[in-house]
Amino acid sequence: MPKEENAHKWTYFFGHKKRGKVATDAAGILPDYKGILVHDHWKPYFKYDCLHSLCNAHHIRELEFAYDKEKQQWAKKVQDFLYETHEEVENNGGRLGYQRAKHKLKEYRALLKDAEIECPEPPKIDGKRGRTKKVKAEIS
């Protein structure tokens, strides 16, 4: 694939009979990619040796589902936090200073602690193998 000045704006569509890593390997981009891969948390993407960033648009939709359909109050708080933080970053030229970013991270972690209280992991069932089924809104 040619290196172009505006390559970061491109979308590459690739059809394949398979899904997952087999198909993405065949497309020939991700196996050698060393940048930041922004994605929707699809497990095959994590098999690539690059930096991963999860897409906040997907987070927003999942938080909306957790709040609207499952009445999880923590989800609304996290969603509001993401919107407010995005607006603050935009209003500050695309970044926050070190101290402000540190404060926002502390605030975010406190919201996640509240989420774990409201939506705890289900208890292990004695004698049952495998992972315990999670609710859609569970923090993982």
Strand order of the largest sheet: 1-2
Series of H and E elements: HEEHHH
- Rounded mean pLDDT is 88
Number of domains in the coordinates? 2
Strand content: 5-15%
- Ends distance: 36 Å
Structure notes:
The protein is mainly α. It folds into 2 domains: 10-54, no CATH class; 57-118, no CATH class. It is built from 4 helices and 2 strands. The chain has helices at residues 20-27, 56-68, 73-91, 98-118, and strands at residues 36-39, 51-54. Helix 2 runs antiparallel to helix 3 (73-91). The longest helix is centred in the last third of the chain and has 21 residues, at 98-118. 6% of the residues are buried.
Question: What's a quick, concise take on this entry?
Answer:
With 140 residues, this protein is mainly alpha-helical. It is 44% helix and 6% strand. The two termini are 36 Å apart.
How are the SSEs placed, and which strands pair?
Elements lengths: L19 H8 L8 E4 L11 E4 L1 H13 L4 H19 L6 H21 L22
Parallel strand pairs: 1-2
Key descriptive features of the protein:
Transposase-related; 6% strand; Transposase IS66 central domain-containing protein; 140 residues; single chain; 44% helix; mainly alpha; Transposase_IS66_central; 4 helices
